[in-house]
Amino acid sequence: MRHQLIAAITALALAACSSGPERSDPATEGVTDAMIAAAPDAEWLSYGRDYGEQRFSPLTQINAENVGELGLAWSYDLDTARGQEATPIMHDGTLYITSAWSKVFAFDAASGELKWKYDPEVPRDTLVRACCDAVNRGVAIYGDRVFVATLDGRLVGLDRETGKVDWEKTVVPNQEDYTITGAPRIANGLVLIGSGGAEYKARGYIAAYDHGTGEEVWKFYTVPGNPADGFENEAMEKAAETWGGEWWKLGGGGTVWDSITYDPKTNLVLFGTGNAEPWNPGANDRGSGDSLYTGSIVAVDADTGEYRWHFQETPEDRWDYDSNAQITLADLEIDGKLRHVALHAPKNGYFYVLDAETGEFLSAGSFAPQNWTTGIDPKTGKPTINPEARYENSGAPWIGLPGAGGAHSWQPMSFSPDTGLVYIPVNLAAFPFMADDEWAESDIGFQTGQASAAVAMPAIKEVQQEILSATTGALVAWDPVAQKEAWRVDYVGPWNGGTLATAGNLVFQGDARGDFAAFTADKGSKLWSFNAQSGVIAAPMTYSIDGEQYVAVLAGWGGVWDVATGILANKSGPMRNISRLLVFKLGAKGELGAPPALADMVLDPPAFTGTEEQVKLGSTLYGRYCSVCHGDAAVAGALNPDLRHSATLGSSDAIKAIVIDGALQHNGMVSFAKALQAGDAEAIRQYLIKRANEDKALEGS
């Protein structure tokens, strides 16, 4: 009797442990888990083609011998003139894409006929909390649905045949700090997604939602909350020991804004986390602790979200070295033993190889120049941080390599099992970091703790040309076993597109100047190119219908490099956005029409009538609230207005109406009345007038 009672209690306890939201059955029709795992050769069923996110296609009809015959089969002009970052998905003859502002389109994949489109009608003022443009990286498909996550934080399940909304859930905690730009992933019938917002006041997390209803099944936070509220789990309690100050008041960062990889071999979800916030650890006294689990790869159980392991790539991150770059799974022979590994090239410039099941560090190599460390411990993988890189201690600018844009950002890399090489879009760019000793938390804008005005390009003229000349880019073929470069293609500037590798001994990549090209995967020889008329930052994909292979890519310059980097943005691209879906096949003869002419710019600013005190205040406020969209030192890229040439500079009332009263809120330029007063708006205006006259004088000299 006693044994029966114990058994009954045990059964009840187990039932309680496994209780949770009721889950829909896994899909048995349409796109299933087994289909995604098997990754049919002709289709592209998930963001990285397969669960391993290798972005390698076994298709060979287009190959190194005939790729020169590739031509434009069809194209589609998009109505969103922002950065285009999505990878198309193809299943059963239909091609699915997203564009900026989280719109979804479905096309006949052979003819290009539009089947349906869906506009979630994201409020344009969401742009104020989107650090890096109104971008979206694509959809997930599962069962009979298409899933998209919107910039304003909704997860939407659409009918795959019609595009009609089946369900919609708001999945972010608030509408002030969070956005979503990433593509959802699927694991055992769960839809996985995180969020952006680390530079605001977001607390990072990844969550899983039921594919049938959108109900949350589990959530894993990446940084601990307020200890006074208790911790969600043991992982958060341990993480709190690595933070200082009152980190939770600013959220902590660590957002899961891109990389999510499901590993069916281990039933783990591996994901990358963003940097700790604020960047400057002195801004909220978070100290020099590791700040777990930021700057890390973390693994959790796919069914429950329970912590399994982590590996921190950038402890005590103060340089915005997110680990959100794509995580790729592969089986490699290392030291004579076949290992199931995770391959990662994050923003910090090191390429990591980890055991995918345990997180054991296996090796690391520097794929780009870096000066934030003096080396990596070959046994533990822990970096030795260069004391000079702790810039908050110096009171002066520190030029960091890589810069905040990262040696490798979200643009996906690819891996070829045929060559054993990883093809990485590499940014080679420095960045001036400097702590703002007078920084204070605000209700709106970036919370980085950086002295932005002090390191704007005109303010550091002694290193401006050095930084500009050193800002380049490359396509690097990396040997992950030997941890060394196999070959490279150099580019004029950074922020070039993601890559696709195929069994036809090809690597495809678009670049920031609008060239979409094919290279040999083994040697890096350029074989073919196409003028896309706009910078290509998205990654291409390939598929086959009725025996014909196609290659598809989204063109459309944009993203953070355009909106925030000022004169450095001019280094990279055509400085224009023409957003299109381009689809190629052998023997096609399609052509693009002539690009529209560039609009003339008003170059004559009003005379400067302000004071140096206004300029000093205005430069500080501009750096804190305006530069993330309108560019470093008021030098804008292609997407947002160049305020040096704004007609409103001649009127204090016009500037106040926009900055304080929100006259252009419908265009995404919200009111900053929470943080600024009329005198502040006037100081910004005088700073802009001063900058406009400075640059006009340089142009005339």
Rounded to the nearest angstrom, the distance between the terminal CA atoms is: 98 Å
Give me the CATH architecture of the largest domain, please.
8 Propeller
Q: Which regions are unreliable across 5 or more consecutive residues at pLDDT < 50?
A: 1-19
What percent of the residues sit in helical stretches (DSSP H or I)? 10-25%
Number of helices: 10
Structural class: alpha+beta
Shape descriptor:
globular
CATH H-level homologous superfamily name of the largest domain: Quinoprotein alcohol dehydrogenase-like superfamily
Write the layout of secondary structure elements.
Elements: H1 2-18, H2 33-38, E1 56-57, E2 70-77, E3 89-91, E4 94-98, E5 104-108, E6 114-118, E7 140-142, E8 145-149, E9 154-159, E10 165-170, E11 185-187, E12 190-193, E13 205-210, E14 216-221, H3 234-240, E15 260-263, E16 268-272, E17 296-301, E18 307-312, E19 327-334, E20 337-344, E21 350-355, E22 361-366, E23 373-376, E24 383-385, E25 398-400, E26 414-416, E27 421-428, E28 431-433, H4 461-470, E29 472-479, E30 484-491, E31 499-502, E32 506-510, E33 515-520, E34 526-531, E35 541-545, E36 548-555, H5 560-564, H6 569-572, E37 580-586, H7 612-625, H8 627-630, H9 652-659, H10 678-700
Helix pairs in contact: 7-10, 9-10
